[in-house]
Amino acid sequence: MNDRKEAEALDRADPLAALRDEFALAPATIYLDGNSLGVPPKAAAARAQTVIGAEWGDGLIRSWNTAGWFALPRRLGNKLGALIGAAEDEVVVTDTISVNLFKALSAALRVQNARDPKRRVIVSERSNFPTDLYIAQGLIEQLDRGYELRLVDDPAELPAAITDDVAVTMITHVNYRTGYMHDMRALTELAHARGALALWDLAHSAGAVGVGLNDANADYAVGCTYKYLNGGPGSPAFIWVPKRHQNAFSQPLSGWWGHKKPFEMSPDYRPDDGIGRFLCGTQPIVSMALVECGLDVFLKTDMQAVRRKSLALTDLFIELVQTRCAGLNLTLVTPREHARRGSHVSFEHPHGYEVMQALIARGVIGDYREPHVLRFGFTPLYVRFVDVWDTVETLRDILVTESWRKPEFAARGAVT
Ligand SMILES: *Cc1c(COP(=O)(O)O)cnc(C)c1O
After folding, report:
1. Cys-Cys crosslink for 223: which of 112, 133, 206, 286, Cβ 3.0 to 4.6 Å?
2. Do 143 and 271 sit in the same domain of this protein?
């Protein structure tokens, strides 16, 4: 592409173009960080008003029943499940990814311990998002039964690492830094062939790429709602457990929301039959209610259309950076192959942090991840092809003029 007009033409032909109107995004902002915190759907402000005024204010305690608060984790779980290839009653929206990983990993280890106590290894990647590794480390310490976390440095090493002492593989489908996407079906099959269970983290997949959990015969999955699903800062995460595993065991955070009859107020814990047993305690209803506004936008399209546009946006971005920013020290770290690419694109630059700060100062918001990585997330619901063009032109100008060298761009905030 040599001309902004070609990007404008792609936007005119884009079947998802109208969905941008569903979002409250400042017109001057190019937002390429929906992979970290999505943009608010316009409906969210009115929904928050209703939850706080009518439901909490007028309904008060009655709203647990009358406004459907108590059922919300399951109802939203079903709505979300459609985006990730889950069946009815296999997903609940609740807690954080970290907490849900603790539940799913505990459950998986428990199942495996009963089947074959010699399996003492959890396989993951060193490049996984750190909280996933921290949770595994904490659980291993807590169980104190000689479990081990085995980390590989490259996806190609996974087949050799999944040996017959592995209890569970804990893999993030799309890598948060590089954008590398695993073949979920093939890796799950491999894990099963070696007797292991497959736990998937969908943080950078849900709402970003097509996911078929049941098709892939996966065993457990977790993910968040504040990234591509536009649920809001800190909105509750989700956990998926297929029907075949739900009643085989219980998870250790056996709080009253996971009880079969919570309002019997029995002194004895009895887990719910089904996905409800993965709940723990009272949910943050104000925040959770807003998750629905993001999910409702997805009902106006489908994941095939979203994926098609995502690949077109990331293809164009890679092409433009490589042609218009050639020789400017940017190195692509995201796979070119469609089947291996999520919905964000990362480039390394020796002064990545400063370059990203210079971009943000000019209204192009991406983010930076250690070491040296400029990360650009493409959320097809509101990112346009002209945004891709304009981003690359701004990036080129910053690199050619070296305006990133201004001292203010070297200052670091607590969150990068
Ligand atoms: C964003 C992200 C998380 C976040 O975990 P929380 O507990 O919800 O803060 C976890 N894992 C991965 C892979 C992520 O990308």
Report:
1. 206
2. yes
